[in-house]
Amino acid sequence: MDPLFAAYDNPDHPGASVVVIHEGRVVLSRAYGLADLSARTPATPETQYRLASLTKQFTATAIMLLIQQGRLQYDDRVVDVLPGFPAYLGEVRIRHLLQHTSGIWDYEAFVPATQPEQVKDRDVLALLTRADRTYFPPGTSVRYSNSGYAVLALIVEQVGGMPFSRFLSEQVFTPLGMRSTVAHEEGVSTVARRAYGYVADGDGFRPRDQSPTSAVLGDGGIYSSVAELVAWDAALDAHTLVSEATQKLAWTPAMLPGDTSARYGFGWFIDEDEGRVRLSHHGETSGFTNAIVKYPAQRLTVIVLTNRAGGEPWRIAQQLADLWLAPPAGQGQHAPVATRPWPFESMPNAR
């Protein structure tokens, strides 16, 4: 397995942490390289990485909790729930935001690279007013949307009556024993055992830990470790936070007109891999690239977190998963990983 991480297994390079969970047990937990180059801090399974878009499954769960508590409905119009939501988006429902079928514009399109102050979730509402239409009528197509998940975080604040980061802490992280996991706000919270992000250049690696959009929480602001994500994975399988029926909704892809699958549920890409349901998500942000692959029926989950831009940890995660997955009866060996498409590769704006 170590050769899969050869690019990260260097005492002078940014690193990676990995965990494989099979049938409720951790069967592999390792780390490679450095979490902090300047301090020469080695990466460990307890190192906290910025999860980037792996955050979306937590944001979706916060919404599902509110719905399970009877405080929201999936088909509520967002404009009726969230003050300040642009009126031209009046037909966008909460379900559309969860499934990336809202068609709302990407807030990043309105944030210049030279933006002096970081954008926060609340700023996304103002940025959305710069458009006057959706990419498509809500519910008719699919386009990956960080804007949608920033808006979902604002809905959690509005309906939950507390900051999004506190809601996650009180209703998700603390009940699961994820004591170090945090939706990080600079100057408000701290990240224990923090990994810092980097990017390769001609001279090696240079810091690239933050961007103008790194402070938006709902679409990518959680820091966690592979060690603590074991508890998260166990909660998903045991339905500790939301009911089995609710979790099934999250793991069911949206259907578009013409009976076409959007291949996205609530915070998860969904497809089939050799007849097995495969849940997955990638995460790419300034200085971090991550992946999770989960086969719920086989009770197998692989998580790879890295603190560098670039790379394809989802390919590594799949190769590791294949070591624990026996080929379906009569099908022989697995197809080569390089020929097995990922659902996000065909979804507009998924990177």
Verbal overview:
Its EC number is 3.1.1.103. GO terms for molecular function: hydrolase activity. It is an enzyme of class 3 (hydrolase). InterPro entries: AmpC-like, Beta-lactam-related, Beta-lactam/transpept-like. Residues 332-351 are annotated as: Disordered. This protein has 351 residues and is α+β, with helices and mostly antiparallel strands. It has a single domain (2-346), classed as DD-peptidase/beta-lactamase superfamily (Beta-lactamase). Helix content is 25%, strand content 20%. The protein contains nine helices and 15 strands. It has helices at residues 56-68, 78-81, 94-99, 121-128, 146-160, 164-173, 226-238, 244-250, 313-324, and strands at residues 16-22, 25-32, 34-36, 41-42, 49-50, 182-183, 198-201, 204-207, 222-224, 255-256, 260-261, 269-273, 276-285, 288-295, 300-306. It has a six-stranded antiparallel beta sheet with strand order 2-1-15-14-13-12, with helices on both faces. A three-stranded antiparallel beta sheet has the order 5-9-6. The longest helix is centred in the middle third of the chain and has 15 residues, at 146-160. The radius of gyration is 19 Å and the shape is globular. The model has no long low-confidence stretch (mean pLDDT 95).
- Annotated CATH topology: Beta-lactamase
**How many individual domains?**
1
Per DSSP E runs of 2 or more residues, the count of β-strands stands at: 15
Strand order of the largest sheet: 2-1-15-14-13-12
Q: Output the CATH class name.
A: Alpha Beta
Give the SSE order as H and E letters. Answer: EEEEEHHHHHHEEEEHHEEEEEEH
Distance between the termini: 27 Å
Say what oligomer this is. single chain
Say which CATH homologous superfamily is assigned. Answer: DD-peptidase/beta-lactamase superfamily
Average pLDDT score:
95
Radius of gyration: 19 Å
The rough form would be described as globular
Q: Count of helices?
A: 9
Unreliable stretches (pLDDT < 50, length at least 5) are none
Please indicate the percent range of residues in DSSP E strands (runs of 2 or more).
Answer: 15-25%
CATH architecture name = 3-Layer(aba) Sandwich
